[in-house]
Amino acid sequence: MRAILHDALQLDDEASEFTAATPLLGVLPQLDSMGVLAVLTALEQKLGLQLHDDEIDASLFETFGSLMEFVRQRLV
User: Fold this and answer.
1) CATH assignment of 2-75?
2) d(C-alpha 11, C-alpha 6), whole Å
3) Are 67 and 33 in contact, with CB atoms under 8 Å apart?
């Protein structure tokens, strides 16, 4: 997940230090509307997820942990 965020948002090494409590939306300037789209596209391409608009809202990107939990649930 860190690698996906690193690549999709073109982050420096900061992604390697993300914990579940690390805030994302509103904190990472790269995570604007285009950044959200880049992350969602990367999740679909790299993990084979099929995401639907009704599943996506701001709470998904609140923290690194909330994003990881969403992905974990989708992979089960």
Assistant:
1) 1.10.1200.10
2) 5
3) no
